[in-house]
Request: fold
Amino acid sequence: MYYVIRTVLISCFYDVTAELQLAEAVALINTIQDWTVVDKIILSTKNADQLFIFGKGNFQLLTDRIIDSPHVSAVFVNVERLSLRTKKEFEDAWGVEVFDRYSVVLHIFRRNAQTKEAKLQIALAEIPILRANVRNEVDQMDQQRGGSRYIMGSGETFMEVQLRLLKEKELKIRRALEKLKQKRSLLRRQRKKREFPIISVMGYTNCGKTTLIKALTGDSGLQPQDRLFATLDITAHAGFLPSRLTVLYVDTIGFLSQLPHDLIASFSATLEDVACSDIIVHVRDISHPETSLQKESVLSVLRNLSLPTQLLESILEVHNKVDLVDSYHSTEPDTIAVSALLGYGLDNLKEEIERAVLKRTGKNILTIQVNLSGPQLSWLYKEATVLEMDVNPEDGTASVEVIISNSVLGRYKRQFPLSRCSSMGKKNPD
Reply:
């Protein structure tokens, strides 16, 4: 069982309330099977870089409280990283294992990883911890035995050998990730060649992203789970907009306030897919008491990903779980209210996504005159999105309304130079 200590800190992304951080700390522990929160407390701290981040009074309070609780088997100090020295001091004083936010989140990631890429990215995130452990272990041995020791015949100290092996392991992981990155890049090029619009669905962890994608696509293979970081791998799911235009919804890793920087860096290859999106759908759990702070956390991470300005400006903000809010009324402009679980607001959301996709991708809605005895109609069904068709039986022609990109339209005109095109019907939004 795990005892949660709540500390009041400045987040690496923004200032967060003590209550939000405490609730997230509890949620993190509850995510892990067989881990249970038996007590929790909010305390002020000193600089997290100091040896003792608590004042003497608070430290003694904690020590007495933990020692008087024999059922406690570990302590979670909810700061991003504890130095190894601080961690050891706490463990010596309290007699139980001590975890920080980095080690807890990494443990959750390790348990939830399914694909080879996710497991490699987690292994990469573990390297800094292993490297610090080696230095700490060598420091302790040197204090006990005195001086650095060399491995016989190698000319290297024990620490140098261990650090070299870790470096070699890191390079091996990075090479494997680079191969997977190239494979992912190939898949992106194939998608681009087929001109499927890409919609990245992002949001704070447990905001309902996967549930929303399942509702938009009808993909029965998606199994949303009510736990933090249930999604660690980017997955793409095909769906149709009201015009029957095919799009790909990309499910991404959820964000968390004070998500350790090394973990974000390790998953940077995965998040590269976001930069290749046409639009971003930002899903918010509007029922959460700290939904505004969660929004700022997500936007801060997105800004730090160096995404194209046009992409950041194309973000559609979706207020999910409105069914859990009494008399919901948005005070924020340009937001879309939905309940992914109940299906409320999905038609409106699809229309907004379609409007944004047409604007962002430069696709045109045109009416094309085709000869029904020729191959034009089947070509359009294969290469474009046919909206509707008005047949003229007198001359064997039809007026076909389509959504078509400039590149596909160019190919059509080259292949069928006598066919007439016009911008009758719906217009591409400005």
Observations:
- The chain has a mean pLDDT of 79.
- The longest strand covers residues 37-44.
